[in-house]
Design a protein that fits this description.
The complex is a heterodimer of chains A (about 725) and B (about 425).
Chain A: H1 2-20, H2 24-47, H3 52-62, H4 71-78, H5 80-87, H6 96-102, H7 112-118, H8 122-132, H9 137-161, H10 168-171, H11 173-197, H12 204-220, H13 224-236, H14 246-258, H15 266-274, H16 277-282, H17 298-309, E1 317-318, H18 336-341, H19 357-360, H20 365-368, H21 376-385, H22 395-404, E2 408-411, H23 416-419, E3 430-433, E4 443-445, E5 448-450, H24 457-467, H25 470-484, H26 491-503, H27 508-516, H28 534-544, E6 548-549, H29 553-561, H30 579-582, H31 585-599, E7 606-607, H32 625-640, H33 646-657, H34 666-673, H35 704-713
Antiparallel strand pairs in A: 1-3, 2-3, 4-5, 6-7
Helix pairs in contact in A: 1-2, 3-4, 4-5, 6-12, 9-11, 12-13, 12-14, 12-28, 15-24, 21-22, 25-26, 25-27, 26-27, 28-31, 31-35, 32-33, 32-35
Chain B: H1 5-19, H2 27-34, E1 48-54, H3 60-63, E2 64-65, H4 70-75, E3 98-99, E4 105-106, H5 114-118, E5 122-129, H6 137-146, H7 158-164, E6 176-178, E7 194-195, H8 210-223, H9 228-246, H10 263-277, E8 283-288, H11 303-327, E9 330-335, E10 356-361, E11 370-371, E12 392-393, H12 394-405, H13 411-414
Parallel strand pairs in B: 1-8, 1-9, 5-11, 5-12, 6-7, 6-8
Antiparallel strand pairs in B: 2-4, 3-4, 5-10, 9-10
Classes of the chains: A mainly alpha (about 725), B alpha/beta (about 425).
């Protein structure tokens, strides 16, 4: 019965589609049919809605990272509709406590250039110091020593290669090997020391701070829906932190690209990502140049910038809206027309071929050669950001779109020119349109003609076409419905949401309203029907206990082990948003161990205070059955509003009553006793990562209360939202 | 309707009971025992692939040296590995290539693998790799792990697709194990795959209360029947309990095998352990880094030599530990995202190149030969005038291993957009 009524709209939809191509009469008939169906679905859903309390829990779960103690009552008091509407207007929600926590993460507010200066790559730092003649003696000696050793090895090889006898020294490979390993360690140590003394930090600390900010905000921000949408868009426009320069580019991406646009027009968000250095780098568009480019290499571009700075003929366009200075504030992405008007003069004279400092510098291979057009961004823009894989584009469209985006690049992506003073430092790692490398011929994109000579307008027009395409509406509607409603949203829901998207010209806030008001969102079968992602699971548990976290490496590492390191998904698809991606043996074990670590307060800098909920604050080894039952009820109410079956409760009680057997797992306890100091932020995430697990405090005797709390946190019910 | 996993669980247990091993084996192994096709050889033995990724792009021209190629010595004045001279006596610390076939030789750090070559259990594919021109580590690793060169949006890795499209006994939680912190790209996807950096971690961690707490979780997960979570829950506890009996902490390698110290050696040791424990391991993955030798690469000694020594010692220990009989069901396959420039650069190193060499090791390998075509190293023979040209698409090697060793019959699904078929196989397996 149920399955049948669910299938019906799909049948009628396809009928509807066919009818549109037929006679007017048929179209009208189809419209009638459609109205009928919508009527039926609504009526059916209205008869079965969630209870008021369920709806509040549902809203707190889906529009946020779960309820904290007291949240349900708070929302009940203000009314759930008001709560939802308030969440759609995050700017009006005060968030002082989170702002204070974020102040301890300086990377978040730095410009890209400041990040390059404060978090240099060690190799780059050394070369730079050497160039400036500022290399400290001990480091210089180390470097010298290292070079000598390697050189000596090569020299030993040279005669051997020519057929000479092996020298005795060469035969003692074992000893040399040990020395080299030791030297390498000293060398790294020396670099670390130098960085500490000079108040510098390793680049991995940037990612760690950014990850921390996401965890802090998800756990503690009052702007819960904002955080859910940041997570959604960050994943939709995914970027992998460990791809080259992206580490340094990501703070600006989160701050200036994603956050200001979470609820705005999709078209503006799309452009913000298209012009974000992080995306330009991640999907290689910064290297994409017209095959007929009139010699627009990097050096010439930088030369052009220099002349630009000194008031000469501008060689390229600077981004009109330098909002990268506008830290953390929701600046507008800049007026599109203004950008269009601010066209570069493609006929401006080429930069003089003067021998700039850049020529002496070592440049990464890829930048030394002219590689021509790069299709990566064009492909993913259509497949993953807008139309969807079956959205109706061809390989020819990919090439044409790629041509449109030639010249959309990053000024000084790795900050090398800024370091040598060739350009203003604050402009390192920002978007720039380089007219010289742009393909200025005519293009045809999805049937739209884009005339020759359009310059930066070509790309902007492509964004117009894509943002307003019906496939995009459907694709975004599907992904949002999947996120907020169910793994397999019904075609009827997707169609309605897509309609809201189209009618509002891609207004994200309006689109979300359509979802939250839909019968499907409020249908009982979708209550606690989605499996939480590891990030959602980890944060929702902290929130449920009213816990505290600084988002540091220890908690992030837990999330990573469960399968969702933030900014750690390599492919541009982003993490999948379906249960099957998260439910497997290894991941589930990590979830259960997370529950144990959290309730046992074994995650450094993340704390829950169970005693505040417990009538029985003692370790609880002499509890009566009634005490234990009370404890079970208490935590089932706290975590799941009592949505725990009597059978499960009985099983829990049986477990609490069984004698605590000592395990034979001595290896495990040994593993966990090698404890270290609590990792404080900001902390490098790089080399020591493998041992991060060892930074958890030892597993002592777990109190009865911790055990009950862990068992319910790890239960199938709490894995869902 | 379809048969769900629970159905398999029950019928598997019953069938195994009929065969007389009930009680001693967890049910996922019962299911494994039931599957008679593909990866299970007729004798009930399971086939295992051990994939080793050399991240950072190893210099294939110094790993497997074309010592018969004059151009090689011309292009590498300080880095070249000298031509082999006569028979290398045991224990001699010769710095020359270890001759394989009169034209190719192994880097001297790999000499411990020569006996395997002589026993025809070690074959090499040279000038293999990705047809994509990228010289970015990131992209090239991505392409090799997804096995879709040029297509970044492929969501899953090829080893995961292999599991997905080969539904036989997918129930063993140890069917695919990566001995790494996170699941590598190549094993990401719909099919379950474990990432375990250390087998000792695969347990409920609650100190003295571990057994008790695990019992609690088990009984809670038993209460919820018929959904993905409870199914996965049950399998998880079975796996944990089983591994506990295997007792990874007490493992002693056999046949005097000595694994190199460090993460790479440890990961191979634990893979050997899983294979011996018979937990249903079909695909094992691990990686080893440090190959990006732009500066002071070294020749017979130095940076690269040290890395190769670790690689060779690890593989040698694994093969020794498993013993010849077990190695009949195991294939070790090495890969690296691209090769390095044929010419040495100005800093006694090599830069990012193109084609590379891959190892295929195991009882089933057609060893003792270098497979594929040698494109030559003369200037005009080089790819873009600088790198070893490609003559074998890595998917032809992957595909052959998938089909012949693991019994995959769905190469088009595993390698989308590529016409993988037996005609293109290089004959790396017998």
């Amino acid at each position: 019965m149920k399955a049948f009524s669910r299938n019906q709209p799909r049948l009628f939809n396809s009928f509807n589609r066919a009818a549109r191509q037929a006679a007017t009469f048929a179209v009208m008939l189809a419209l009638v049919a459609n109205t009928l169906i919508v009527g039926v679905t609504n009526a059916e859903a209205q008869t079965a809605r969630m209870s008021e309390e369920q709806r509040i829990v549902h809203v707190l779960n889906r529009l946020g990272f779960g309820a904290r103690p007291g949240d349900v009552e708070r929302v009940k008091a203000m009314g759930v509709e008001r709560y939802i509407e308030g969440q759609l207007q995050p700017d009006a929600i005060a968030d002082a406590a989170v702002d204070a926590k974020l102040r301890r993460l300086p990377a978040l507010t730095m410009t890209t250039a400041e990040l390059y200066a404060k978090f240099p790559a060690p190799g780059q730092l050394l070369r730079q110091l050497q160039r400036r003649g500022e290399l400290p003696a001990d480091l210089a000696a180390m470097m010298q020593n290292r070079d000598n050793q390697n050189g000596a090895m090569n020299n030993q090889n040279a005669p051997a290669a020519n057929g000479a006898m092996t020298t005795p020294e060469a035969a003692t490979g074992g000893a040399a090997r040990g020395d080299e390993a030791a030297d390498k360690k000293d060398y790294r140590q020396a670099i670390r020391e130098y960085m500490r003394e000079n108040d510098l930090q390793p680049p991995a600390a940037i990612t760690a701070q950014l990850q921390a900010s996401r965890i802090i905000r998800a756990a503690h921000s009052e702007r819960q829906l904002q955080e859910v949408m940041v997570d959604f868009w960050t994943n939709h426009f995914n970027i992998f932190a460990n791809k080259g320069a992206d580490k340094w580019l990501l703070p600006a991406y989160d701050r200036d690209t994603i956050r200001p646009h979470t609820f705005g027009k999709f078209r503006e968000l799309l452009q913000a990502t298209a012009q974000s250095p992080a995306m330009l780098f991640y999907l290689d568009n910064f290297q994409s140049v017209s095959p007929n480019a009139r010699g627009g290499n990097r050096r010439q571009m930088l030369e052009g910038m220099r002349r630009n700075r000194t008031g000469d003929q501008p060689g390229m366009m600077r981004e009109r809206n330098p909002l990268r200075r506008n830290r953390g504030l929701r600046g507008n992405m800049g007026n599109v027309d203004e950008q269009r008007a601010a066209q570069v003069n493609p006929n401006s004279p080429q930069g003089a071929m003067g021998q700039g400092q850049m020529t002496q510098q070592r440049m990464p291979q890829a930048q030394r050669r002219q590689r021509g057009i790069n299709e990566n961004y064009a492909r993913e823009l259509m497949e993953l950001h807008t139309l969807g894989v079956d959205g109706g584009y061809t390989q020819k469209d990919i090439v044409e779109v790629a041509r449109c985006f030639t010249g959309w690049t990053i000024l000084d992506p790795r900050g090398a020119a800024a370091r040598t003073g060739l350009i203003d430092t604050e402009r390192a790692g920002t978007f720039v349109f380089n007219a010289r490398t742009h393909d200025d011929g005519e293009k045809i994109v999805l049937g739209h003609k884009i005339p020759a000579g359009g310059g930066i307008n070509d790309g902007l027009k492509v964004l117009d076409i894509l943002a307003r395409h019906s496939s995009t509406a459907k694709f975004i509607a599907t992904k949002l419905s999947r996120r907020f409603v169910a793994d397999e949203p019904s075609p009827a829901l997707v169609a309605r949401v897509a309609d809201a998207f189209t009618k509002s010209d891609g207004d994200i806030r309006q689109t979300l309203r359509a979802i939250f008001a839909s019968p499907e969102f409020n249908a009982p079968e979708n209550y606690r029907a989605k499996i939480k992602t590891p990030f959602e699971y980890a944060v929702s548990a902290i929130r449920a206990f009213g816990g505290e976290t600084n988002g540091g490496p220890a908690i992030h590492q837990r999330i990573a082990k469960m399968g969702e390191p933030l900014y750690g998904y390599q492919a541009p698809t982003g993490y999948p948003d379906k249960a099957e991606a998260w439910v497997n043996t290894g991941a589930l074990l990590e979830r259960l161990n997370y529950a144990l670590a959290l309730t046992g307060n074994r995650i450094p800098n993340t704390r829950v205070d169970l005693a505040r909920f417990g009538a029985s604050g003692n370790a609880g080894n002499n509890l009566t059955d009634a005490d234990k039952r009370r404890m079970i009820d208490q935590f089932s109410n706290l975590l799941l509003r009592g949505d725990v079956s009597e059978k499960t409760k009985a099983a829990l009680l049986r477990q609490l009553n069984s004698p605590q057997t000592t395990t034979s797992a001595t290896a495990i306890t040994q593993n966990e006793t090698s404890e270290m100091d609590v990792a404080m932020l900001p902390q490098p995430e790089g080399r020591g990562r493998r041992n991060r697990e060892a930074t958890s405090p030892p597993v002592g005797d777990l109190s009865m209360m911790s055990r009950v709390a862990a068992l319910i946190t790890g239960s199938p019910e709490f894995q869902r939202q | 309707m379809g048969i769900n996993r629970r159905f398999f669980l029950r019928s598997g247990a019953v069938a195994v009971a009929g065969l007389g091993f009930a009680g001693s084996l967890p049910s996922f192994l019962g299911r494994a025992a039931l599957a008679q096709n593909g990866a299970i050889a007729s004798g009930g033995r399971r086939k295992t692939l051990i994939a080793i990724f050399q991240r950072g792009a190893v210099d294939g021209l110094n790993m497997v040296v074309p010592h018969g190629e004059a151009a090689y010595y011309g292009m590498r004045p300080t880095l070249a590995i000298a031509q082999p001279r006569g028979v290398v006596t045991a224990g001699a610390a010769a710095d020359t290539a270890v001759d394989l076939d009169g034209f190719f030789g192994l880097h001297p750090s790999l000499r411990m693998l020569k006996p395997l070559w002589d026993e025809k259990r070690f074959g090499i594919v040279h000038a293999a790799g990705s047809p994509d021109a990228t010289r970015s580590h990131f992209d090239a690793q991505d392409y090799m792990e997804s096995a879709t060169p040029g297509v970044k949006s492929t969501q899953d890795g090829w080893l995961n697709r292999l599991l997905q499209h080969d539904p036989k006994d997918k129930q063993s939680p140890f069917r695919a194990v990566s001995m790494t912190q996170n699941t590598p790209r190549t094993l990401q996807g719909r099919a379950p795959a474990l990432a375990i950096s250390n087998l000792n971690d695969f347990t409920i961690r609650a100190g003295n209360a571990s057994a008790n707490v695990q019992g609690g979780f088990e009984s809670i997960y038993e209460q919820t029947v018929g959904d993905t979570l409870s199914g996965t829950g049950r399998e998880t506890f079975e796996a944990v309990n089983y591994l506990k009996r295997v007792n990874p902490a007490q493992y002693k390698p056999e046949n005097g095998a000595q694994y190199p110290r460090g993460r790479f050696g440890d990961s191979l040791l634990q893979i050997a352990q899983l294979i011996k424990a018979g937990v249903g391991l079909e695909i094992a993955f691990t990686d080893i880094g440090g190959w990006d030798t732009h500066i002071n690469q070294g020749a017979a000694r130095g940076q690269l030599a040290l890395r190769l020594a670790e690689l060779g010692a690890g593989i040698n220990a694994l093969v020794t530990d498993l013993g010849a009989a077990r190695m009949n069901d195991v294939v070790v396959l090495t890969m690296s995202e691209f090769g390095r420039t044929a010419r040495e650069n100005g800093t006694r190193g090599t830069d990012h190149g193109h084609a590379n060499a891959m190892f295929v090791i195991g009882g089933a390998a057609r060893g003792g030969r270098v497979h594929g075509q040698w494109p030559g190293l003369k200037s005009e023979q080089l790819y873009e005038g600088r790198d070893l040209a490609l003559t074998t698409d890595f998917r032809d090697v992957f595909g052959e291993v998938a089909q012949k060793h693991l019994g995959s019959r769905n190469l088009t699904k595993i390698f989308p957009g590529y016409a993988a078929n037996a005609a293109k196989f290089r004959g790396v397996l017998g």
